[in-house]
Amino acid sequence: MTKDQVRIALVQMSCVENPQENLDKAQERILQAAKGGANIVCLQELFTTLYFCQTEAYEPFGYAEPVPGPSTAALQELAAELGVVIVASLFEIRAKGVHHNTAAVIDADGSYLGKYRKMHIPDDPGFYEKFYFIPGDLGYKVFQTKFGAIGVLICWDQWYPEAARLTALRGADILFYPTAIGWAASETSDTVRSSQRQAWKTSHLGHAVANGVFVAAANRAGTEGDLEFWGNSLVSDPFGQVIAEAAHNDEEILYADCDLSKIAFYRSHWPFMRDRRIDSYGEITRRWIDE
Q1: Pairwise CA distance, residues 145 & 129, whole Å
Q2: 154 C-beta neighbours (distance < 10 Å), count
Q3: Regarding beta strands 40-42 and 85-95, do their DSSP bridges make them parallel or antiparallel, or are they unpaired?
Q4: At what angle do helices 70-82 and 19-35 cross, to 10 degrees?
């Protein structure tokens, strides 16, 4: 493989109540992904725990840990052993009463490259994240790994074109989205389920096309409480073509071979970056434009 050829793997798995069991399981999946030739492995959102944000309770704060901390230390050792880059979403305690939904990025030599704190925090039935997480304050970041420049955004961030654009403008070749999204188990309409999942998928493909980058979303699997996570982790090329997609709701390691040289090809043929009218976008920072 040339330096532009990168194999990524998305770990789509179910979780249990015990964080150590989830960490052990994730490490085993990373080992399998490395054996499958992966250079970069991305885990799903909050992979060490159940998705506790379905309710507002104080007990889950006990799951929070420093980043870097115990989980990142274990993953750093594994990354160095296997020679892979790891993207890992964790419940970060920053200070007493100050918590974030955070993704750590570990390079292939085991070095800790830094972290991204989730910027957009939802507060919807079954997704009460504002109770647990403070919005990120590190901005949009790109990490220079052994296998390329990657940007990391987290779940709810995936609905915001501004987040994808700003990360791409910093030089990301691949946007990774650790994710935990699904339906309410009580939602039985196939039409509603299909339309929600299609909207989620379309959003990712739009980010890929508009920015000329690869987009990779690693979703959870399984049913937890009243949420049925739909899986369907996916990878899109810069033209918005799905090059890999995982099964619905099943555990899986999804592989995709990304040719980073295609980014220049697509951006030259669809020159959205060239034709951006940056002089006309000043009002984008307003909440609403009132006449």
Answers
A1: 30
A2: 27
A3: parallel
A4: 20
Reduce the DSSP state of residue 21 to 3 states and report it.
Answer: helix
pLDDT tens figures, 53-95: 999 999 999 999 999 999 999 999 999 999 999 999 999 999 9
Task: Write out the DSSP string of 85-97.
Answer: EEEEEEEEEEETT
Residue 201's CB is within 10 A of a number of other CB atoms, namely: 16
Q: What is the mean pLDDT of the chain?
A: 96
Assess whether pLDDT exceeds 70 at residue 51. yes
Task: For residue 24, give both structure tokens.
Answer: 């052990």
The answer, yes or no, to whether the previous bond of 122 is cis (omega within 30 of 0) is no
- CATH pick for 7-271 out of 3.40.50.1820, 3.40.50.880, 3.60.110.10, 3.30.70.1350: 3.60.110.10
Question: Of 166, 167, 174, 130, which Cα lies nearest the Cα of 149?
Answer: 174
Angle (nearest 5°) at CA 108 between 106 and 110: 60
What tens digit of pLDDT does each residue of 175-231 get? 999 999 999 988 889 999 999 999 999 999 999 999 999 999 999 999 999 999 999
Cα of 253 vs its chain's centroid, Å: 15
Three-class SS state of 106: strand
Catalytic residue numbers, as ranges? 45, 118, 155
